[in-house]
Here is the input.
Amino acid sequence: MTLSQERLEAALKPRPVHFYEQLDSTNDVALAWIRAGKPHGALFVADEQISGRGRLGRSWYAPPGTALMFSLTLPPQPDLSAHATMLGAVVVGELLERLGISGVGIKWPNDVQIDGHKVCGVLPEAVWAGDRLVGLALGVGLNVRINFSGTALADKAISIENVSETPVDRLDLLVYLLERIEYWAARADMTVLRAAWQARLNMLGQRVTVTTPAGSMSGTAVTVDEYGALLLRLDTGEDFRAVAGDIAIGAQE
Ligand code: BTN
Here is the structure.
């Protein structure tokens, strides 16, 4: 089923929703909405993004009609913003499990995977006025029916319809994700969300290589702390705390 303004409005009423056939980035319009002081809870959905952003300055693209791409504006609750990455990854994990898909895991910090293949990325971006948090745009890009065969991503990425028994309607996925985001965001205590995220992390206890802006280092992924940082026991015996970066399973010297 195609997405449209009418379908989204009918299913999501009374939430403010904005649908675009083609757009630069849903995060950009969500951030502009927050900067303009408009109410939180607004949803921006695109069928195609021409400047979609990923983490660490990467681009994120999906052909029209093949992905669920949206950004939701969230209120400026410091605890929520600190857990936004986890929130996005957990609700997508819950969605996939609900669809009966096995092998669902989260690759630290926020890639949702199916059997080690990336199916979704999450990009939260905050708006600040000086040191005051104004709001948060939670961006989610979910591969629904992107055909990766024959591409450079063939052995790294996967789409829901590669593993679901039947075609899925992106609107149904979105409705469920929004319900789950609301559920988690309404909780004052983020401990349970953190536990749900940690339980899905798929590389704890394994040898990993973490690449950060400061360089790469290998060791064992021991655990994550209350802020979601990854604690690594390096081969030198020292401990390293990674707050951002990319992780690969196995040592890649
Ligand atoms: C990542 O895997 O690095 C994060 C990808 C996030 C992509 C989504 S698509 C909707 C929203 N708008 C963007 O420009 N990016 C996010």
User: Anything to note?
Assistant: Helices lie at 5-12, 26-35, 78-82, 84-98, 160-163, 170-185, 191-200. The pocket of biotin is lined by residues 25-27, 49, 52-55, 58, 60, 69-71, 111, 121-123, 139-141 (CB under 6 Å). The first helix runs from residue 5 to 12. The two ends are 46 Å apart (CA to CA).
